[in-house]
């Protein structure tokens, strides 16, 4: 029997949420996921994929009216960009701009522009807690296109530095990851880092959207701002989660729409 939620007493008006997904990473489920999301974070070829993968994924996004974003990461396909690598700030600036210019060239060949950028994996988590890295990433983005929206971890330095430097930003939360008490994601090396049950996934999504809180792996509840929800495309139940999230949001008068 499907899980249902009755939050009608909380819903004073129709709510809107962006649902994004990491894509173009060499998996075979991108086409299956596209109908359920509103924004795609497409790998720029460093942690996964290549220029042809980017083009195919952009084509899929266009066919499904999904906003197209860049997903730059460490140049580390061996570890899928999920290994933290020490990096100087000048190197970080170059790492981001190189991937954005490559992605921009491809999007322009389709006659479109990048909608957003979301750093990938270890790079995302490092910048979320390191203000200098966050500031460098924002500066790199602005040097390429000051109209791009930065998707960053809710409450992190990525969001505060984007706001400080007048770059549009969207606070991101996660449907399929658990949280630590400081608002960071539970490291994948820890037990319970991944949410693998559909009911738990849906409950967390609704709590973040409607109550603006999330329950942490330690049992406490923290405040959170949810403007865009991420679902990882490489998750074992990614398609099932995406389908159920969209279905249940619509049933509760919450519209999935890009930012």
CATH class placement = Alpha Beta
Which percent band covers the strand fraction?
15-25%
Count of alpha/pi helices: 8
Low-confidence regions: 1-5, 7-13
Indicate the CATH topology: TIM Barrel
Give the proportion of residues in helices.
Answer: 25-40%
Shape: globular
Question: Which sequence of strands runs across the widest sheet?
Answer: 1-2-3-4-5-6-9
Q: What is the mean pLDDT?
A: 93
* Record field, number of beta strands: 10
As a whole number of angstroms, the C-alpha radius of gyration is 17 Å
Give the tags.
single chain, 259 residues, alpha/beta, TIM Barrel, seven-stranded parallel β-barrel, two-stranded antiparallel sheet, 8 helices, 10 strands, 18% strand
Tell me what the structure shows.
This protein is of the alpha/beta class and 259 residues long. The chain has one domain: Alpha-Beta Barrel (TIM Barrel), CATH 3.20.20. Helices cover 37% and strands 18% of the residues. It has a seven-stranded parallel β-barrel, surrounded by six helices. The protein has a two-stranded antiparallel sheet with strand order 7-8. β2, α2 and β3 form a beta-alpha-beta unit. α2 packs across α3, α4 crosses α5 and α5 packs across α6. The longest helix has 21 residues. 46% of the residues are buried.
